[in-house]
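Quick one - first record:
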Amino acid sequence: MISSNQRTIMFRLSLFIILLAPFQLSAQNTIAAVIKNNRKSLYYPQSVARFYRQNGYKLAWIAQDTIKTHVWEAMMLLDCVEQYGLIQADYHPKQLQYDTLHCLIEQQRPYEEKATYDIMLTDAIIRFMNNLHYGKLNPVYTRLKIDKGSLFKAEKELLNAINSKDFSTIIDNVQPKSKQYSNIQNHMHLLVGLRSGDCYIIPETLIRKMAINMERLRWRNTTGKQVHLTLEVRRGLVINFKDTYKYDVALEEALYNENQLSKSTLKTIRSLRIPLE
């Protein structure tokens, strides 16, 4: 038998669910609409849509100060992309401002504004993860191919990271595991992250050459093809090799100036199949 007190609790719970349903539906419709309206501005619109569908169409980052999210960790990762051989211009820097984020968290702002920031941050982190895993200009796994769906699903890994207590580690783990890659990555972190803060003068040419070889190793990791490296790091020492195929200049230009390159130039660069060692 159900007691009177239990009936009262069940009634209140049912009433709460009924009252909450319109808000949930409105929030779901808002997020779906913002994704649709910003589709051309998103790097991975299909991946972003899948993420929010799997997330129950909830905001992933923007919440009151009393609610714990990984938003600050995500923003700090985007601040440090150069340590991974990437550039900040690729991750919505104009939209993802700290002042705007503080305003959205600390003040009452329209839900659509919060959803727009939330979605842009999700898109930026998904691109960051795909760039770490596949590389930015993978000749086999293009952005469109990845966005349609592939073996590695950044949106799924991101959801796992958001629901974990070790957000940054999960993001880091999408990178190649090879010794060659780890050696360059660790040295890049040392040069860009630590030594630059101690006023060391780090040659930009060295940083860029490390970045393009990290890019090649990401290609090798995902395509299974061998690559011709022009730089390695062994026991903390940088070793340069001859650019036999003369690809360094073109690849560097594409990595650092993608938005300024014509589609035909990018197509030509991507069509340069990975030369065998």
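second record:
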Amino acid sequence: MLFARSANHLIPPPSQVTDMGGQPVRPQMQNPMSGLFVEKAGKSENPKLTITNDSDDTIHLLLKDQTGRVFHIDAGPYKTESADIPAGQYDIAITGDDPTISGNSGDALFRTYKEYSATFVVTSGLHNPIHLGD
């Protein structure tokens, strides 16, 4: 068992996606295996990360940038949490409180004026490291 993103939550509903002027825009479809987060336009220079925990375990998202700064987002069972972070390249890891569930890790590039969201579930099977961004 391991933490992975939920394929059911990759594309936000069209009503939740707007351009910088607040006008609704059609979200672009993404390859479900292309990354962990769904990216959309944001209103702040700092990227906003939102994680949804679709499991009965508390999850912890750890982000470490190239200068060594560390950021945490924790989400309890079936909860959604958000944080603003500086734009840039990060090493990421997702873990939980249940020691029988393996974590997942990889890297990500978060851009200015963007928002990112991901829903995590517990799944069985093999996984590859997560890679996000260009």
